[in-house]
Amino acid sequence: MNMLRNNRREFLGTTLTAAAATGIAQGGFFSSSTYGKESKKLGVALVGLGSLSTNQIAPGLLNSAHCKLTAVVTGTPEKEKKWADKYGIQPDHIYNYQSFDKIASDDSVDIVYIVLPNSMHAEFTIRAAKAGKHILCEKPMANSAADCRAMIDACKAADRKLAIGYRCQFEPHHMKSMQIARSKELGAIKMIEAGFGFTIGDPKQWRLRKELAGGGALMDVGIYALQSCRYLLGEEPKLITAQETKTDAVKFAEVDESITWLMQFPSGVLAYCSTSYNFNGLNRFQAFTDKGFIRMDPAFGYSDVRLETSKGKIELQGQDQFATELDNFAKCILEDQTSKVSGEEGLKDLLAIEAIYKSIATRTTVAVES
Q1: Which of 65, 188, 244, 331 has the fewest CB atoms within 10 Å, i.e. the most exposed one?
Q2: Are residues 331 and 359 located together in one domain of the fold?
Q3: Rounded-to-integer distance, Cα 130 and Cα 307, Å
Q4: Range of the domain at 142
């Protein structure tokens, strides 16, 4: 499926070393009781073999302490042999999108990791749940809040776990920033500025088709800025005012190019956010507090992120973010816990995103649905 080519993934960077990833995963996530319960790594089927799966998730699975790649699902026959040869996957563990439901009888698969265009997330999450598999789905969770709710309901009906690929919530610098913010170590947050953007390439790619992507820069990378405000505060926005601009009405005929939006939170904190497909270099957040600031710049890449506060730089060991999120999800399954990046977390982002698009369309301030 050529539409899965992914130049944004290349823009974000590459994974770090296996040693760092494995060490953090083993040291930080699992209780001794979990180690006692686990007799094997949980098997993962990757659904969609585009750039993210190829360059980030599959290597992350090699670095994972508690998950392994056991099956793949692809719409491109040419990829089948390549992946089989590279990862030792047998033919009876290779599926296409039509034969996917046969995965229900594949005992080597515990988790289905969905890495497809946004519009396909709901369908394959629901099919995976009906097949009896736990699901890790890439962000954004879906193209609409209604689809998010359908995904949540399907997983509850099947008694399967659902998590969304918010890798930053497992990255040490982001976790430290959350701890500083919520503990009010530097006082209460007063205002946040956050943004993420890049220059998008191929005008024929699926990310520029509304039917597949649901939207443009906001759905793709703006969601990182939105997420960072929410997890720094531990609050949900109640009012949103947004505006959009386009410099290329042909390339961005179906989706947004650049958006800015203002969020008001129940505590009174204001967050000013921005996203764009029109330029590089926007990759940060900064929270202003009573006693200083918390800043990450760059913030959202796969590596080389930087954290500092008004007290100075904070140096932390990097890690393979995908190995870490997978190992955390394995813990949730093995210990019957709810993931902190559950389907409900993904739904909250879509509710805010829908309010942003509604504000643009109506040119008014919009209340975020709950």
Answers
A1: 188
A2: no
A3: 42
A4: 2-167+324-339
| Three-class secondary structure of residue 255 per DSSP | coil
Tens digit of pLDDT per residue, the chain (370 long)? 333 334 444 434 433 333 333 333 333 444 433 434 445 799 999 999 999 999 999 999 999 999 999 999 999 999 999 999 999 999 999 999 999 999 999 999 999 999 999 999 999 999 999 999 999 999 999 999 999 999 999 999 999 999 999 999 999 999 999 999 999 999 999 999 999 999 999 999 999 999 999 999 999 999 999 999 999 999 999 999 999 999 999 999 999 999 999 999 999 999 999 999 999 999 999 999 999 999 999 999 999 999 999 999 999 998 999 999 999 999 999 999 999 999 999 999 999 999 999 999 999 999 999 9
Tell me whether residue 79 is one of the annotated catalytic residues.
no
CB-CB contact of 235 with 228 (8 Å): no
Looking at this protein, which amino acid is placed at residue 136? L
Q: Which of 113, 166, 224, 357 is catalytic?
A: 224
Check which CATH number belongs to the domain holding 227 and give it: 3.30.360.10
Residues 130 and 195 in one domain: no
Q: The domain that contains 146 carries what CATH number?
A: 3.40.50.720
> Catalytic: 35?
no
363 and 253 in a single domain? The answer is yes
Contact partners, residue 14, CB within 8 Å, separation at least 6: 55, 56, 302, 303
**Active-site option among 41, 139, 251, 331:** 139
Instruction: Give me the number of domains the chain comprises.
Output: 2
Residue 186 and residue 159 in one domain: no
pTM of the entire predicted model: 0.91
